[in-house]
Each structure stands twice: as C-alpha cells, then as structure tokens.
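Minutes, methods subgroup
Present: GH (chair), OT, SY

1. OT presented the first of two proteins processed in the latest run. Sequence and structure tokens recorded below as shown on screen.
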Amino acid sequence: MPFTTVPDKWDLQQHFARDFRAAFLKAQTVSSNDSTARLDDLEALALMANFEYEKTDSPPLHSNLGGLFLRHESLVMMMLQYRVQDRVFTGPSSSVMLSRARERRVLLHWHVYGLDAFHCLDRKQISLIPDTDPRDEDSFSQHGARDFLDAVLGLAVIARKLLLQLCSNAAKRHGIEPNDVHDGYARISQWRNSTCPTHLRRCERSPEIVATSDNNTGHSAELQRHIHLHRAVLWALEINCLMQIESFVSDFGLRDNGSLLAEVTTARIEYESLRALNDMVAICRWIDEHPICEEDGKQRSLVDLAPLALRNVCAGLCLWTCQRSISSQFPSMRASFGRRLMPTDGQKHPSQAQLESARLLRETAAKATSHRDTVGVLERLDKQIALLDS
C-alpha cells in the first residue's frame, strides 16, 4: 500500500487496516476456544503488528481490543501458545491445505524470532521467547550461514545474547562486567568475518569506503536483484548491535574492580562506536549508489524498501551523533588526546565532521518517502541537528 500512487493512499491504508482489525478479532473469537490459529491470520498479524491506527468513528471495542491483541507481544505469545493451523478453515471438517504451508510456517517462525530479538534489544526488555541450549549458538557460529535468512538468524542470536548479558539484573544493579562487553564485540566480529555469507559481507579495505564481494555466480536472478537490499539490511543490523552495547553501558555503567580493565573497556567502547558511525556513513553513500530498479523502470531507494532496519538505524545514529556532540561525552578522554584531535590546515574540525555525518544520516533516513511516519522521524532529527548547529 505505501508504494501505490493512488490518491488519498493514507486514508485508504487506514481503511484497509480497520477492515483487517475487525476481521482478525472476529476470527480469534472462533479459534481461541481450541487454542489454534490459522497460518493466514498469523502472517497477517506479523505484517500489521504495532500498526498506528488513527482515531475514527470505529467501535470503541475494536480500538481497545486492537490495542491489546494487535501488538508485537501478542504475536509472540500466539506463536508460543497456539497450534498453527495449515488448513484453509479451522476445525476438523476442513481438509483443504494452504498453499506452501510448510515453507510459510518456517518463514513465519524465522520472522518472529528475528524481529523479536531486535525489538527486545532496542527496548532493553527480556524476550518472551525462552532461551534454548546456549551450545546451539556456538554450533551455529562455527558452521556459518548459507543465505540471507541464516545471516539474520545469526545476528538475532547475538542480539539475544547481548540482551541477556548486558541487561541482566546484576548488570543493572552493579554495572556491566567489562569482559561481557569484549565478548559482545568478539561475537559480532566473528559474525562479520566468518558467519555472514561471503557475498553479503562488507570488506573494510579503507575506512572511507564500503566494498563488497560482488561474486553473485550461482544465485538466481531474483536473488541478484535484491542482493544489495540484503547487504544493506545486514550491515545496518550489525551496526545497531554495536551501538546497543554503547547504549547499555551508558545506562548501567561498567563494573569497576579496581583494575585498568574498566578504563580499557571505556576506550574500546568509544572506538567501536565511532567506528560504527564512520562505517554507517560509508554505508549511506553506498546505498545512494545502489537503488533497486523496479519492473516499470522506476528506481527506489533501499531505505524505502526496508525502513525498520535502514531508516531507523540511520535515525538512531543521527540522534546519537548529535547528542554525543552536544553533551560532550567522554570529556576526560578527549582532553587526554586533545592535541591529536586538533585539525591542521585544510582539515575539518571534529565537530564539523560530526555535523556533516548527522546531516548525511538524516538525508538517508529521509529516503523512506513511501512511509507516512517518516515525517515524524525527520522532525525529531531536524530539532537535534538544529541544536548541534547552533
């Protein structure tokens, strides 16, 4: 719907969303008695979870129930507690199976697990999905991923591990163990250099460019068409994991046992965070060079096709860059190395470089033009950039 050119498409989108809400809630009154849910219904909920409905003359009951049952958490609970029904209709009398049911079921489980991992990581909340044997993660990382879905799953496992280690009750009370921070960076590095499929990796030959292996031999034409989108999404999710480590430490602090390890860890966090910012700026430039051409010949930005990953990560990094410059985080460290940060003739001042980076991240986020909530995102970014530029 966001990519159509029909007049009043936003009003039409709300109309279809309200129809979905009414149909979904009605279907649940039938299936809830036997704890089953149709695969079609769960797929629809996966697409519509957390959709923002405008206030209308819809029945208050629909609005109230929708606020309870059309959320991400409801989707996760239904996947955990309900039996997924592969038939066209629920009930024992239905014998017609849904098309490609097994493939769709696997894709739905992958989607919910991956989405939940990053959803919980961003919100610093423990997942409702129980943890499996921790040895499964080590086994997965050793074998590597074969395709895009495997690569996302590998990052999702890392995201869940970061949440458990850095957002535990002990970390909140006493600070984060420095070794857990280094362990998190090691896991991400292993994913980037070993687990991620070769054709989806970014090669860091220079800190100013993002180069990838363009060996697409053996891939289908459809995969080759979307391979740049897969790359961009994976890179953005990796950057997000790196920045979330900084966010956890900023919120809970580091546990200081009287050794130099806490100071070493603080220095590494700043290095990894600034490196992630520098990489994301390079990725933004790379995204500009690789739009996807649709069948009608129209080009569309990768950001417009994956706003949850690309737009939101760019927006988050833009806010972090502005707030870091405004609040002057790590003042003692910058004082220690102040002479090295002073620009020479013809070089930009570090604050000017960060302002330009924030603007580029903002402009990249703005490329999600087909999504209505982009306007609100840009308004928040513009306020922060204005404060930084004042």
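2. SY then presented the second protein from the same run.
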Amino acid sequence: MNWNEFEEALEHERNHLHDGRLRLQRRSRKWLNSTRQQLRKMRFAHFFNTTRIGFDDEFELFRGFNQAIHFRK
C-alpha cells in the first residue's frame, strides 16, 4: 500500500464516520484513530530516517516525541 492509497483509505473512512449506524461508526472511529497514530509514527520515522543530526540531538528529539505522545493520551 503506497502513501496515496493510504490517504485515500483514510479519507474514505472519514467520509463514512457519520452514516448514522452507531456501532459501525464507533468501530470506524476506532480504526481511524489507530490508523492516524500509525500515520503519525510513519511520518515521524520517515523524518527521523531522512534527517541527519547528531546523536545527542536525536536523543533529545526522540525524548521530546515520546513526551508528546504521552501528553496527548
């Protein structure tokens, strides 16, 4: 699955969130939230792998990222 397909699937799910059927809706939202988190991780990993920075900076960045995740929960 490439990036565009992934975004399209995400958009597709988003469009079906408000179709009135609550159980399906809840399941979709759960799926959407988990995919959104995966997407966030993928984006970060991509940035992480393509950015050349010193080890100390990397460590600080990673620690900040983890704190941000815990803060959002």
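Chair's summary of item 2: The mean pLDDT is 66.
Next meeting: continue with the remaining queue.
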